[in-house]
Write a structure and sequence with these properties.
Helix content: over 70%
Largest sheet: 2 strands, parallel
Strand order of the largest sheet: 1-2
Radius of gyration: 18 Å
Number of strands: 2
Strand content: under 5%
Shape: globular
């Protein structure tokens, strides 16, 4: 499979999934942003181009980056009432870059250590999400416009796949898992519906990242132990979906109570 063919298939899949996401609410928008929409195509491209071991390195880097991205976006969610969109974006990317760099430095080249570090980071982000009240918002929240999400997603996949040929595979995985779609989901909801809608997108993003970690770990170890690409991919997708559904139920049932908020009072917040 050539790079151009892989990118064309990735583009078709991304456009279909993101079109569905556009009709959903802020919570689902955040969830879709956390799913392996860019990581999975990038891993398949690297596997076709450079083999299973390099793809495993890419996936391990993506796991660490995904957890760091989740931590960065949860930081924005906690500070959402005090910072604007520009400052919030800067904080998110700064926290993501710092935490990701430190985590990769600590874990080294070992995919096992990277998996452990990624799970530890995600546990912290999940704990933060449990402390984040989920406002009850009156009105209809929409997902991010396809005109925003599709170019971002396809650009991330393309750049990550190209860089994997020139740089160590880890950095392709890091770029593919950067919080590009997650930040877009949060900023769109922040702009249109005020800072309280950010909590919905952030909670959804945590759920999406949980499924991404499961997907990356299962696919990575499946490739390392010779399970076969498509069998490992199918098992990874199934378990990732199960993880997302389970955590989504937990997040909804165990959400902290919050006062009901009207969308109209926060629409187009100037923060």
């Amino acid at each position: 499979m050539t790079l151009s063919t892989s990118l064309a298939l990735s583009a078709a899949a991304l456009f279909t999934i993101l079109s569905i996401q556009k009709r959903a609410g802020a919570r689902v928008s955040g969830l879709f942003a956390g799913l392996p929409l860019t990581t999975a195509p990038c891993a398949l491209i690297v596997f076709a181009d450079q083999g299973a071991l390099i793809a495993a390195q890419t996936l391990s880097g993506a796991m660490v980056a995904s957890s760091a991205a989740c931590f960065g976006l949860m930081t924005f969610a906690f500070l959402r009432a005090y910072v604007g969109r520009i400052m919030g974006s800067f904080i998110t990317m700064a926290v993501f870059a710092a935490v990701c760099a430190l985590a990769l430095l600590a874990a080294g080249e070992s995919i096992h250590l990277r998996t452990g570090v990624a799970c530890a980071l995600f546990a912290v982000a999940l704990g933060m999400s449990r402390l984040l009240p989920l406002p009850h918002i009156v009105g209809t929240l929409r997902g991010c416009p396809i005109a925003i999400t599709f170019p971002l997603a396809l650009g991330a996949v393309s750049l990550a796949a190209v860089l994997c040929r020139a740089l160590p595979a880890t950095w392709g995985g890091v770029l593919a898992a950067a919080p590009i779609l997650g930040l877009a989901a949060i900023l769109v909801n922040h702009f249109n519906f005020g800072y309280d809608a950010v909590a919905h997108a952030a909670k959804g993003y945590v759920t999406g990242v949980a499924s991404k970690l499961v997907f990356c770990a299962v696919l990575m170890y499946g490739l390392v132990f010779g399970l076969g690409l498509w069998l490992a991919f199918a098992i990874a997708l199934g378990l990732a979906g199960l993880a997302a559904a389970t955590l989504n139920v937990m997040q909804t049932k165990l959400a902290l109570p919050a006062a009901q908020i009207s969308l109209k009072s926060h629409a187009f917040a100037k923060t």
